[in-house]
Write a structure and sequence with these properties.
The complex is a heterodimer of chains A (about 280) and B (about 325). Chain A contains twelve helices and no strands. Chain A has helices at about 1-40, 45-50, 65-95, 100-115, 115-130, 135-160, 165-170, 175-190, 190-205, 210, 230-240, 245-280. The longest helix of chain A is centred in the N-terminal third of the chain and has 41 residues, at about 1-40. Chain B is mainly α and about 325 residues long. Chain B has twelve helices and two strands. In chain B, helix 1 crosses helix 12 (about 285-315), helix 6 (about 175-200) packs antiparallel against helix 9 (about 230-245) and helix 11 packs across helix 12. The longest helix of chain B is centred in the first third of the chain and has 47 residues, at about 10-55. The termini of chain B are far apart. Classes of the chains: A mainly alpha (about 280), B mainly alpha (about 325). Chains A and B meet through helix 1, helix 3, helix 4, helix 5 and helix 6 of A and helix 1, helix 3, helix 4, helix 5 and helix 6 of B.
Chain lengths: ~280, ~325
Amino acid sequence: MTRRFSRKVTNIVALALSVGATGVGLLFLGAILYTLLKNGFAGMSLHLFTQMTPPPGAAGGLLNAIFGSAMMTLIGIAVGAPLGVLAGTYLAEYGGNSKLSAVIRFVNDVLLSAPSIIVGLFVYQIVVVPMGHFSAIAGALALAVIAIPVTVRTTEDMLRLVPQGMKDASTALGAYPWRTTLSVIYPAARSGILTGLLLAIARVSGETAPLLFTALNNQFWSKDLNAPIANLPVVIYQFAQSPYPEWQQLAWSGALLITLTILALSIFARIVVSALQPARRS
Amino acid sequence: MDQATAFVIEPRHAARQRLGEQIFRGATLTAAVLVLVLLGGVTIALIKGAWPALSHFKLQFLTREIWNPVTEKFGALAAIYGTLVTSAIAMAVAIPLSFGISIFLTELCPAWLKRPVGVAVELLAAVPSIIFGIWGLFVFAPILQRHVQPWLIAHLGVLPGIGALFQGPPFGIGILTASLVLAIMVLPFIASVMRDVFETVPDVLRESAYGLGATTWEVIWKVVLPYSRTGVVGGIMLGLGRALGETMAVTFVIGNAHRVSTSLLAPGTTISASIANEFTEAVGDLYTSSLIALGVLLFLITFAVISAARLMLRRLDRKALASV
């Protein structure tokens, strides 16, 4: 009787703690989003999108930083995504279970979780040092290096969802694997690959550490790939640590912009995936 | 027209197809091998950059606490210590919490609540680390400074032994604050891996245990957890890898002092925070090289941890891990 009682008590206590843990997790998510919305919206105005980052003590916007971030993300994805998609195609369609693919898969997974500041140091060594100065192109390449493992992983997973029967049908018609891949597999996995790209963009657009010493920052408007460029994460980093209220306000607004962009991309990616789900079952 | 000719493949067409096959296959193989080249390139570039510092300080680089840009004497001890201590505390906080969350999601949660809570946890994982940093600096640190740290100093600081951990003024920022922000950051990663791992446990095992009269907790502790042990440890290691290398969230709140202090309330530094903070301001080759050498250390540590994690998670459905 007492043993049964103590088992019941243990059960209730453990389950209550589990619910409590979930509450704590959600509380922090709520707290972070609340602060972000409250402080971020306080500084939301059209000026954010029309004016440059100001000198200390003056009002201004984030136009140059938004532009710099968008440009580097675009170039980073344009360089990284095709390579990632091709590598993912190799793993899904050609590599099979060979030793080489197993090693590549493993290394890719390690790169996927590697600290992003290491990528910054790497690009600093191979781009910034030879060029002799910080530049937008170095920042974009750092982002590309981060985007590659993400796209490799999602592409392989998505291509593997394409039913074997479709591939067999194409092969039976006499198509070489490359024809099958281009004309059958890619169209069938289109929304999956798109999801991978969205996730890669989401991942890349919040990265700060790899930009600190590749793209650096720039207080002025610049679209020169060969010069340091303003970008949202580094502007947030520098402005948040400054003593000026105007700068801190801009940091919060920038933080809100980045978070909203990333959450929108993740949610959109989720919708694309769930639109894909029924197609997979049929 | 003779029906059979329709099936004769034109030689020129076949040759074009074969060429296309070679080019496409070659392109995908090149891209795939590039992943290996990338890892090799990172290793070589970092070691090359770190070489001046490593050959100058030799093993002393690992054992000395001094970090003096003026006299150009650099030792990594404080950064290594800070990295290990913040990650250890973060894991001590995050593991039980993520275990609780994943249990809630897989075993307790009513079906209608499963998706919203699961999505919320994944959204927390998608928030970029700089947001945790700015939130930690402006919101979390002041709360700790005003309400938590004075209590710790007054009540735990006077105890013998562990009192040493809670000495000094309540700065707000410091090792403890950085550890807690890290814990909140890695929480969703560990929780979602654990959830995916728990979901691989066959329902028939759970049902058998319930059939024998086990309570929910006993099912979790004696059936689900032993069955999924490897995956759980893998998820924890993955979280640890993230905690060790996390940069922005820590840089904001750790105080950036190259010091080894017993007190958790004192400012400190980590490997990644030192690099983020000082790299662009580093003057002189030896200073820059020492920071890259810190990067090499971080790379070695995280590489070992992440490799172990991936090996343990190897058996898990790869798709389930796409989010991490």
